Structure formats: structure tokens, C-alpha cells
Amino acid sequence: MLTEKDLELLEEKEINPEEILRQIETFKEGIPYVNLLRSATLHNGVIPVSESQRQYYISLYEEQREALDIMKFVPASGAATRMFKALFRFLDGFNPERETFNTYVNRKNGQDMQTFFVGVEKLPFYEDVVKALEERYADFEHFPDDRQKYLFVREMLSEEGFDMGSYPKGLLPFHKYSTHAATAFEEHLYEAALYNVSRGRARLHFTISPEHFSKFDEAFNSIIRSVREKTGVDFDVDFSFQKASTDTIAVTPDDKPFRKEDGSLLLRPSGHGALIENLNDQRADIVFIKNIDNVVVYRYKYEMAEYKKMLAGILLHYQQRIFKYAKMLEETEISETQILEIRAFLHEELNTYTAPDFYKYTRQYQIEHLMEKLNRPLRVCGMVRNEGDPGGGPFWIKDEDGNVSLQIIESAQIDLGNRRQLKIMNGATHFNPVDIVCGIRNYKGEEFNLPDYVDERQAFIVEKTTEGKELKALERPGLWNGGMAFWNSVFVEVPLTTFNPVKTVNDLLKRAHQVRK
Question: Within 13 A of 342's CA, how many CA atoms are on the CB side?
């Protein structure tokens, strides 16, 4: 099945041929849907936090953070193309010489474009685009309104204009301050200065596309002096790319290796789940994970920072218990009472269940089983109330071996044709805003090997088109979905105000992204 040329390509990418054959078998066998038992709700998988508890956890983090290695991990490889989906459609479908803007809106049900132009002057790049148009067209301000609208969008998106659709989302102007327009990348630095600092330094790691490195490097060098002066914090910022070794093979609709016009195998990037390898390369006691587009203007950052500290304090609280019990299991002659105590902690506080026939085990095997359950990476995930926003959510699931666990599940993993599963999904009270704090070292201070804790059965098969031909592609289990399936997980309710992603350009018009009230 694999030619000499194929093997050379795999060697170049450091991919084991056996892995490719395994992937082809995955396509043939298919990936089963997850089995939802119920959604995670308050007091049943999602922990509510009172104000006094919140202050306690914040204090716990503040007391310890100077002694900790802390970093922030930001997936930032996405281009901004999808942000402007409605605007690209507008350029393709609207001709100001043949119809009015209102006719277009009615014909295409284009309320998103109506919203865009109602608030266009509030966008951080509005003045720059208008200035460019006035330089390009001497009498631009006298053009008919419909033509101005069309030219404004074209200037934003065309290659001869600002070409915003091809920019990395992290380097687009998000917020308009009196002195400049700040990018999401810059806002992450300011935010990190409020909670991600230890011994005067803030460490941030961004995963980006290789073709965007020079732009990010240039952006960092242009802003770092100002950010350092305003925050009093030094920054260690570095970047990594999705590893070529995590690429997966594409296949034809009948599960044969897909070959390009030149006969070579088509290997594709395998989704954000591949970033578990990048995360595994980091060295830290605590890692904050947050998407590049979930930022706010400066006046809201203090509230955001308080909840990040709270989540970190909760992580430290649970880690202390986990480390104590792990040392107890390793170092002492443990009693039946202590075994019961550890098992109850796993079940009731860590949402981690031991084997149903646990009490049939010998004492030594009970100890080994408890240690295996305790000694895992730990994540504390903020969860917000579900108000119809898209995204994965917290659910209790049962796997093929009968193990029950708490997971973050995407709708693509659920059999929507099964009425019971659909009812559970639709009844979800919370969803995942990707607000995660991780502990990736064990009780001895050693790093876990994170790929060991991935559930490969939670991968995704998706349909794509290349060179005009249909194909099937394999995406690795999502970073915070199957990529962390065998971690210990604690889900905590946080307010909706902590979730402010920019999925479309119109999201920049929301309050969290406006400097003026």
C-alpha cells in the first residue's frame, strides 16, 4: 500500500508507517459516538463557588504563586478568514450598480451585514480603512452610500487592500484605544500581567502557523517595550508550530490512501488535538489555557484575572490532596480506613471512579489501582451557563469498557439521530469556554507524558475536498476533549462575562470589546 516515495515522505515528517496503517484502519472501522449518560450540572459534575470560597482560592494562589513556575498556553494558529465569512459573501453577491444594500439584505437574509454597518464606526480599524479609501478615491465621501459600503468591505478584504481575511486572528486589531488599536495578541500580554506572573516575569507560549511567525515576532518587538513599561512586568514569550509528525493521512471515500495529482500521499494537519504534543513540551507547575480570540478591553481585565486566580487556587487545593494521598500510597503502610478515604476522594471530589469490583482486589492491587487513578494530569475547567452559544459542554459518559467519566464533549461526537442522546445534549446547562488551568507535574515534581492520557477513540472523521475531489480526513481527539480524556477533571461554574470570543467581526461590537461604555 505504501511506496518507497511514501516511506521517504513519512520519514521526513517523522511519522511511523505503522501509525499510517492504523489510521487507515480507523477510517475503515469508523469512530463510535460517545455514550452520554447525563449532562454535568451544578452539584453533579459542575461545582458552584460562593464569594467566600472564591476569595479563599484567590488567596491560596496568591500565597503560593511566587514559588511556582507558571505559564499561559494560547492556541493561536487560526487565520481570520471565518471571522469575515458574511463579508466575503457580501463581496461575491452584492453589486451596487444593480441593487441597493437593503435589497441585498432582504434577498440574502443578510442581517449580519446590517448589524455590521450599523456599528461599523465602532470597529477598531474603521478609521484606517476610510483613510485608505479616501487616498485611493479623491471623491470617496461623495460616492453613493451603497457603493461606499461595497468599497469599504473590499478594502478590508482584498489583497491590494488590508487583506484581513488572510491575517492570523491574533494580529487583527480588536480594540481601539486613544493611542492605538490593540490586537488580541497584545491583550493576552496585558491580561497575563494580572495573574500569570511569578518572580516578576510572565511566561506565554503561543502555538501559531509557521507562515505567521515573522508577523508575530515583529508584533511582539513593536509592543513589548510599551507593555513592559505599563505593567512593570518582564515577559518571556515563545512560539511553536503544530508538529509535522502529528499530520494524518487522508483517504478516498472508499478508504484508500488519497493521492495528489503528482501521486504523493496527502497528509494533513490533524486539528487542535495535535497541540497536546506542544503542551507536552512545556515545563511548568501551572499552565493556563485560553484561546487567542477570548480577550476583553482593559477595564474588564481585572474581573477576568480574578476568576483565573480562582481556578488556579482550586487546582492547588486539589493538588495538595492528590499529592498527600499519592505519597501516602507510596510511602506508608496504609490502612483500610485510609483506602476508603482515598477512594471516596476520587469518587466524590475528583469525579474519578474506581473499578466496580475494587473490593475483590488484593490489598496491593487496590493500592496500585488508586495510585493509577490519582497520579494523572489535573485540569480545572471554568464552565459557563448555556445560553445557546455553540461549543462543547460537560457531560458524564460511559466508555466501551463500562468506565464512567466526566468529559468535555463536542456535538460532532454525539449521535444526534438517537433521541435519548439528543435529549441529553439539548438539556445541557453549561458549556465549555476553554478557560482551563492545568497541573502537568506529579507529586514528585516530574512532568507527565501527556500523550499517554489521550483517548484515541475520541478522534473525528471529517469530509473535505482537495483538487476538486472528495476525501475523508482524520482529526486527532480535541485538545480539551479526547486529548485530555484520561486526566483528572474538576469543572467549576464561572460567569458568562468571562467568555468573550470573537468568532465573527460583529462580535467586536459587543460591550467587552468596546473601550467606551
Answer: 27
Q: Distances from the Cα of 297 to the Cαs of 129, 222, 268, 432, in angstroms?
A: 21, 20, 36, 22
Residue type, 483: G
Whether 237 contacts 204, CB under 8 Å? yes
SS3 call for 209: coil
Closest residue by Cα to residue 389 from 239, 498, 286 = 498
Q: How far apart are CA 203 and CA 201, in angstroms?
A: 7
Helix axes 126-136, 145-157, angle to 10 degrees: 110
Q: What is the pLDDT of residue 389?
A: 64
- Contact between 305 and 274 under an 8 Å Cβ cutoff? The reply is no
Q: Quick check: 517 pLDDT over 70?
A: no
Which grid cell sits at 300? 474588564
- Nearest 10 degrees: Cα torsion 507, 509, 511, 515: 120
H or E element at residue 45: strand 45-47
Cell numbers found for residue 118 = 450599523
The three-state secondary structure class of 46 is strand
Cβ–Cβ < 8 Å for 58, 309 = yes
- Residue 238 pLDDT > 70: yes
Q: How many CB atoms lie within 10 A of CB 78?
A: 18
Question: Which among 210, 392, 388, 198 has a CA at the least distance from the CA of 286?
Answer: 198
Q: Helical H runs in 142-243?
A: 145-157, 184-195, 213-231
What is the predicted pLDDT for the residue at 209?
93
Question: Is 288 within 8 Å of 315 (Cβ atoms)?
Answer: no
Four-CA torsion 53, 57, 63, 66, nearest 10 degrees: -160
Question: Which string of b and e fits 81-92 if b means at least 16 CB within 10 Å?
Answer: eebbebbeebee
Q: What is the pLDDT of residue 40?
A: 96
- CB 500, CB 296: distance < 8 Å: yes
Report whether 17 contacts 1 (CB < 8 A). Answer: no
Contact of 148 with 140, CB cutoff 8 Å: yes
How far does the chain reach from its first CA to its final CA, in angstroms?
A: 62
Residue 123: name the closest of 508, 461, 436 by CA. 508
Contact 491, 381 (CB under 8 A): yes
Contacts of 25 (CB under 8 A, 6+ apart): none
Strand partners, 394: 408
Do 319 and 368 touch, CB atoms closer than 8 A?
Answer: no
- Burial label for 30, CB within 10 Å (0-12, 13-18, 19+), is exposed
**Nearest 10 degrees: Cα torsion 5, 9, 14, 16:** -50
What digits encode the pLDDT tens for the residues 261-307? 899 999 999 999 999 999 999 999 999 999 999 999 999 999 999 99
